[in-house]
Amino acid sequence: MIVRRHLLAGLAALMLCAPAHAAERTASVPLKKLFPYLEAYLSLPPAERSRFVMAYRLLAAGKPDPSLRVVLVAGGQRTPLPLDGFGRIARLPTVAQLRAPDAKAEVTGPQERKFNLSLDIEPAMAPAAEMDAHALALASQQATVGARKAAGVLGFAAPKLDRVVFEGAAGGEAVNGQGKATALPVDKGNPVFDPAKLPDARTIRFSRGPRRLLLAKAG
Among 7, 58, 143, 183, which residue's beta carbon has the most beta carbons within 10 A? Predict the structure, then answer.
């Protein structure tokens, strides 16, 4: 995943400057600051980003908060950007909106909470109790190349996204073409699939399917 901690300082500072007596606070953030690397990702040819997506999660105290609200303001228009149950911003800006000279995002949430942004890279497929191992491997490969291109001159520092993390899953196993099942390793309670270590895997299945898929660096 792309290192992004230094991108969050300005966002946090803006959000902490609201009046102390307000029940809620609203921060006005330049759109590109809220969506780092998104323009570079959207500028990739569609065939080079078809298997992975950039997932921007807005959190309060490190957790999803249904009271958080985001509105895109550009060209005199206001467009709500809804958040899903993981805090992920479900509707992302277009390239034209990102490039608008007055583009900004207004983020509103509880006064007492500290907000932060998390940027993850995910396979472009829905979580399921049984998944195609080859498709997951292709997502990993494409995301590694795409993340390096999106990082531009810092591409050399972008990690190799060589494993898939199945958040919330249980009983994960890789099944090869002969029907032999191999238990997936577990990291921080989540099953992990490394395509290079299980090159003959055809199907990934679980006794309990994952809530969310993440592409990550090994180790």
Answer: 143
